[in-house]
Amino acid sequence: MVNLLTQHQKLDKELQVAIRQVIDSSSFIKGKEVAQFEHALAAYMQVGHVIGCANGTDALQIALMALGLQPDDEVIVPAFTYVATAEVIALLGLVPVMVDVEESTFNISLQGIENAITSRTKAIIPVHLFGQCSDMEPLMQLAEAHNLWVIEDNAQSLGASFTYQDGSSKMAGTIGHIGCTSFFPTKNLGCMGDGGALMTNDPALAEKIRMIANHGQRKKYYHEVVGCNSRLDTLQAAILNVKLPHLGEYLDARKTVGDSYQKALEQFKFGSLPVSLPVSPPTYNQFTLKIKDGRRDQLQEYLAKHGIPSMIYYPLPLYKQEAFRKYVPEGFSLPVTEKLCQSVLSLPIHTEMNEVELTFIIDTILQFTNKNSLPSALADEKLG
What we know:
By secondary structure, the protein is an alpha/beta fold. It has 14 helices and 14 strands.
């Protein structure tokens, strides 16, 4: 699905120097490379403050802690997303309220948000899934009308931008009150382990976030609030400092692959291709097909038979996960989420994909499509 080896081989000399410098300094925690990376990412994102942390899940948890929410306060999240988005809400004694998503973009439904707002609602966490930014302008208008906090889960969409109706634009992750991202190795900007960051334009929130991530202290051994221990390692920051200047070319490479898939599979008979919002082109952290007529598993098996990996993100709605059953009534169902869980299939996409690999994947999918267009008995024989 992702070729990290070749990506890092291209930067081998720079990475070796950066890692060696950290080793020689022996400043493995809060070394100067961490502050350098935070400042560099803030400049790239055009945001006032970036605070590094241990991983993307911690970023979400720290963001919620910084908002001063109380037990049983409700936080609205999409039901079609990775578990971390809802997990941190439950960990803090808050209530995850799961709503449906838009079938076209995979992102949270504005109507779903509006229908779910109650007197206990305090925040919304839109997830910019698969690299496609949520429709943030009307979402922020809705949040403002109801006095709600907005935390952007930007783990899969670092580098995406959103254009407003007046022509101005902002980077995904800088539109809400707090943005959260991950540097997990497979992300648009990945380190060599775990890493994450929070971003905000609010200096008071930034100070509180930094304090919470550091055991609730501004001054060592003086703890003003209950915090946590979540730090971006110096080694990971040094690696990210080397890779951040290449983020633009990484995004261009993903776009090239995504555009090639879009063009070659335009007439894909057994499903539909990802939708790109005109106001926010995707970064293609994943390229996700929607397969109809129950053929998803058959296509995945066919690809695997030809040595092509694929992934199902995500096979089960959050509200059907055992960990979250207590938050929804018996029989709770969201039709679009259920449909997507039964139909999505993500193809390989990464910065190092070459023309031979891409052509082979496309040709194999088209071969599957053509064979399955035959009468069923003949198709079974051909596929066998």
